[in-house]
Design a protein that fits this description.
Layout: E1 4-6, H1 9-12, E2 35-42, H2 47-58, E3 63-69, E4 74-79, H3 85-95, E5 98-102
Antiparallel strand pairs: 1-2, 2-4, 2-5, 3-4
Length: 103
Amino acid sequence: MTAETEISAAATGSCCSPAGSCHGDGAADVQVGAVTTVYRVSGMSCGHCEGAVSGEISEIEGVGSVKAVAATGEVTVISAAPLDEEAVRAAVDEAGYELVGRA
């Protein structure tokens, strides 16, 4: 698994259309060409930690979604373009945690 991959149109398709779902399940639409990057963050131990890290990273321009998992220390970020790692580091630092690097 690479830390940074482009999501292809085929990966985001459904039985109804190549770009999304017609079932109204409320799932967020994934943008074609979006970049998924997984970071390692140290110090997260609970849901509050996950929320703090996610909240700060989600404020970076171009970020579409963030999912932090304290149990693994991994933070998955989907963005319109690759993010500046120093901006991610600053956001994680602002939340009170340490960005170790990419997973």
